[in-house]
Amino acid sequence: LLSKDSSDGLAASVAPFVRIARSKGRSLRIDEMNAVSCGGEPGLSDTFATSLWAPDAMFALAKAGVAGVNIHTTPNYVNQLFTFAQATDGSWSGTVEPLYYGLLMFNYAAPAGSRILSVHGSVDDAVRVWATRDSDKVVRVLAINTSSSPPARPGWSAYRAGRRWSSCRRSWLRRSRRRRWRGAAARAGGSGSRGPSRRARSG
Question: Which residues of 117-134 are buried (b: 16+ CB within 10 A; e: fewer)?
């Protein structure tokens, strides 16, 4: 899932269709995709690996010219983004899955209207680096470490992006959605999340 075939390879397979669409004055949007097809695969679709795959794949597709992507999920399947359940006492609990956090990371790193920048310099082979600049000229850099080892000190730049970057680590790759943080607030941009999924309760 974290090989370049799952991101750059995916984008390369779509690129010819992007060119065809553009030749007709149209844009291309992928109407259905997820990390693993047909409902997902337990032990993979519900692990932190999807949090690293999602932004890398989204960036690769955007760079190839894809206009947008619809993430396909099915209720009660392992590849869903979040679930909600009501207890017998009337209270509700919600669980946010790893894939959602990866897509949220992409949303932060590539806000609407931003453009992908070229990244120059040397970097560890296991680290994928993406950079964007938005309409206010704010540069964001996302470094995704797909290795279980800490990366070497970055030796790259994205049009003088400076030394501030966001990073995703592989420390939870094999952890599943069974790890919960009860009582935590599952909200966009929430702080304190230390694992692949989070459960919030109300009532």
Answer: bebeeebbeebbbbbbbe
Pairwise CA distance, residues 42 & 99, whole Å: 13
Say what the pLDDT of residue 157 is.
53
**pTM for the full predicted model:** 0.76
Beta bridge partners of 168: 144
For residue 173, the Cα-to-chain-centroid distance in whole angstroms is: 14
Strands 68-71 and 92-96: unpaired
Q: How many CA atoms lie within 13 A of 57 on its CB side?
A: 27
Report yes or no: 153 and 173 within 8 Å, Cβ to Cβ: no
For 156-189, the pLDDT digits (tens) are 554 444 444 444 444 444 444 433 333 333 433 3
Question: Which H helix or E strand runs over 71?
Answer: strand 68-71
Query: Are the C-beta atoms of 175 and 48 separated by less than 8 Å?
Result: yes
